[in-house]
Amino acid sequence: xxxxxxxxxxxxxxxxxxxxxxxxxxxxxxxxxxxxxxxxxxxxxxxxxxxxxxxxxxxxxxxxxxxxxxxxxxxxxxxxxxxxxxxxxxxxxxxxxxxxxxxxxxxxxxxxxxxxxxxxxxxxxxxxxxxxxxxxxxxxxxxxxxxxxxxxxxxxxxxxxxxxxxxxxxxxxxxxxxxxxxxxxxxxxxxxxxxxxxxxxxxxxxxxxxxxxxxxxxxxxxxxxxxxxxxxxxxxxxxxxxxxxxxxxxxxxxxxxxxxxxxxxxxxxxxxxxxxxxxxxxxxxxxxx
Length: 289
Description:
The two termini are about 30 Å apart. Helices cover about 5% and strands about 40% of the residues. Strands 1, 5, 9, 12, 13, 16, 17, 18, 19 and 20 form a ten-stranded antiparallel beta sheet that branches. Strands 2, 4, 6, 7, 8 and 10 form a six-stranded antiparallel beta sheet that branches. By secondary structure, the protein is mainly beta. The protein has helices at about 225-240, 255-260; strands at about 5-10, 20, 45, 55-65, 65-75, 80-85, 95, 100, 135-140, 145-155, 165, 170-175, 185-190, 195-200, 205, 210-225, 245, 260-265, 270-275, 280-285.
């Protein structure tokens, strides 16, 4: 599959939206937890039926959306989703409809699976690499969509726990530059957060925690006019505290769940005029856990 240019979702507007619909547990597992920046504050459906694991998003006003992400989704590799945007309200005409499609990264080339893998015959990867983190749903419409009311449906009725957990919803602007990041200098690194204690005899005891992914990347010669506008907007509206979603190659479904994540800019991006009407910039994004 051809390489797609890196995609960055920023300036989340879902944090101020009104969420409703479906059937979700109250209290500490309420649907409104999707608006908080803490992935551990999950929303949990009362059961795994598609009618329960859906919800409506009212942005309060017409907003232009370039990308939608759901983080920390505890679903099976057979999960599907559907996203719709309505012209006026949720009972009216539909302005955008994805149809029912698989979660990204769950359908893989059958040749990449072992024959004894339970998903071999369906071309489905049966296990995610890091099940404690859950999976990431990232949807980038073919063009930006302006709407106020959205409906997001998670379809995974065969979930063995008979429930769907989701940690975060982000909806915002999309930055997908005309030229991709350079191969020189980019890296996907891992930060070990596991606590280690050592006894007087030298025996080590571990309190296992997740690895944090850190993606560093840069661009050498981007068009000056568009890049100055976009990068300046990303820097000022994201800071080092507002969350973004990064997908190094959105079309690489085999590695999507390994590469793409929700994070924050560890430092604001830099801007350098590298040549006439060309600028270079670089980023470092740390995963939110």
